[in-house]
Design a protein that fits this description.
With about 260 residues, the protein is an alpha/beta fold. It has 10 helices and 9 strands. A hairpin with a 2-residue loop joins strand 8 and strand 9. It is globular, with a radius of gyration of 20 Å.
Length: about 260
Amino acid sequence: MITMEHVCKSYKIAKRNAGFGAACKALFHREHELIHALSDVSFTIGDGEMVGYIGPNGAGKSSTIKILSGILTPDSGTVLVDGRIPHKNRIRHVREIGVVFGQRSQLWWDVPVIDSFELLKDIYSIPDSQYRKSLEELTELLNLKELLRSPTRQLSLGQRMRCEIAASLLHRPRILFLDEPTIGLDAVSKLAVRDFILQQNQNHKTTVILTTHDMQDIEALTNRIILIGKGRLLLDGTIDDIKKGGESIDETVAELYRSYDI
C-alpha cells in the first residue's frame, strides 16, 4: 500500500535578468524564487491498483513520483510505501519498485541492451534462475529478441521505451511508477506498451501509478484518476465520475483544467 499524508515539497530557484550586467550583479546578490511543488498532498493507493496521476506541466506529478521512489526527500509530511519510508530505506526500497521516466534512460548508451540488463541483474542481485525467467518473459511479451544485441543509441524511441520498461521489471517489482512512458511513441508502439502494462497488472498484481498527458493511456489503463494542479490535490475519483455525456476523455480533462484554473 502507498500512503502520502500532508506532504509538502518546495524548491528555491535562482533568477536573474538577461545581459552581462545582470550576470555580474548575480555574482554578488542572487535573487531566488520559492516554488511550492507540492502543498499538503494526501492520498492512499491499494495493492494491485492502477491509478492515473494527471495534471498540467509543473503541477507536481514528477516531484510526487521522485518522492515515492526515494529520489527526493519531502519537506514535511509522511510517505509510506509497503511500510517503508522511501528516502530512508532506499536500498531495500528500490528492490521493490520499478521506475520508467519517459525522458530519461537507465540503459547505457553505447553498449548492447543485453549488457545493460546484465549489469542491472548484478545491481539488484537477481538470482540467475529468476533473471533468465524474467528476461525470457519480457523478451517475448515486448518483442525484444531483435533488439537485445543492439546498442541503445541505435534504437528508435519506441524500441528504446520497450527496453526501458523491460529493464525496470527485471527484478520483479511489486510497484511500477511510469512517468510519461509513451511520450513520442507511434500508435503501434503505444498499443503494445499499454497491452503489456495491463498484462503485468493482471498476471503479477503489479501496482501501477501512471503520469501522462496522453488521456488515451489513462482511459485504456486506469479507472481511478488523481488530479493535481499547482502542487495541490484537486480531485480523486473515477473517469465515469468526471465524464459528461458524449465528451471524449481529452475534452473532459480540458474542462477539468479550466474549472480548476490550472
